[in-house]
Each structure stands twice: as C-alpha cells, then as structure tokens.
Design a protein that fits this description.
38% of the residues lie in helices and 25% in strands. With 170 residues, it is α/β, with parallel strands linked by helices. The protein has a domain of 64 residues: GMP Synthetase, Chain A, domain 3 (2-Layer Sandwich), CATH 3.30.300.
C-alpha cells in the first residue's frame, strides 16, 4: 500500500522537489503546469507518511480570483477537511491566497453538489438553447452570496467547461 499522496509527479520528484526527465517532459509538454509542480511538491512533502492521504490523488491546481483551487480525485473525507486547519492553512500563508478544495467527479450533479456543500442542491436543469448552446441552472436550498456563486461558476467553467446559473429556492 502506498504511503503518500498521489500526484502527477512521480514519488521521488514529489519528495525531493527535483524533477526527473519524465516529470520534466510532462511540464514541457504542458500536461502539467509549474503551479501543479509546486503544489505537488508541497503536498508531497507535507503529507509524507500520513496514511489519511494515501487514497487521494491531487490532479490540478488553478488560480481563480483570490483562490488557489486544488482539484482532488477521491471523496474528500472529514480527515482532509479538518486538516484545512493545518496543511491548507500553511499553504494559504506560503502562497498568499485562500485555498479551496474541490473533488473531481465524473457525474455533473455530484460535482455540483460537492462544490456547493453544505448548501443543498435541489435541482440541476439543463436547458438547450436553439443556437445549440446549453445553460445549466442550479437551484439551491439556501442563499449564498453573489461572490461565491461567481466563484463556483468559474470553477465549473474551468474544470467541467460548463457555465452555471445558480439561484435559490425558498
């Protein structure tokens, strides 16, 4: 069983901070970005030997507005969410930006539900427009601010290439 957080870098590069030729090629071919490398190395060193991280894979890091969005595979459990007080808090200080953790989901509804959690997603409607485009409307069970809705829309656009319109239902 592996005892490290999986990333797009190999284990050695992740722990040493020095890229091998294979990882260097991924960077050169734009399979990963410099930000992905920096975050992979940081997370690899901070999570080394911590078994609660061995079931996750760090996929990508994105700067969106004032946030560093970290995209993980695997359902993020309470151990990771509680760890925001430690590793992710330190990361916010190091990178001087707020950290927002996102679960990569194949299913759009699950992705949206995880993104808006703890606000309940009551409905997710796809509206086909005559010009061939699709609008995705998210009906929420509670209010959230316009700034957060804007952030969620940008995250969804970057990760799923879908624009959403969110509104709440009383």
């Amino acid at each position: 069983m592996k005892k490290y957080l999986e990333t797009s870098l190999c284990k050695i590069c992740q722990l040493t901070g020095v890229l091998c030729s294979s990882c260097e090629e991924k960077l050169r071919d734009n399979e990963i970005t410099k930000l992905d490398v920096d975050i992979s190395i940081y997370l690899g060193q901070k999570t080394r030997g911590r078994k609660e991280y061995n079931k996750y894979k760090f996929n990508k890091a994105l700067y969106i507005e004032d946030y560093l969005v970290l995209v993980f595979e695997g359902e993020i459990n309470k151990a990771i969410k509680n760890d925001k007080e430690k590793i992710f808090k330190e990361m916010e200080e190091k990178f001087r930006v707020k950290v927002f953790v996102v679960e990569q989901q194949e299913n759009l509804r699950k992705f949206i539900e995880k993104l808006f959690y703890p606000i309940q997603v009551k409905a997710l409607n796809m509206i086909w427009i005559p010009d061939g485009s699709v609008e995705t409307k998210v009906i929420l069970g509670g209010r959230i601010g316009k700034k957060r809705i804007n952030l969620m829309n940008k995250i969804t656009k970057k990760i799923k290439n879908i624009e959403i319109q969110a509104e709440y239902q009383k």
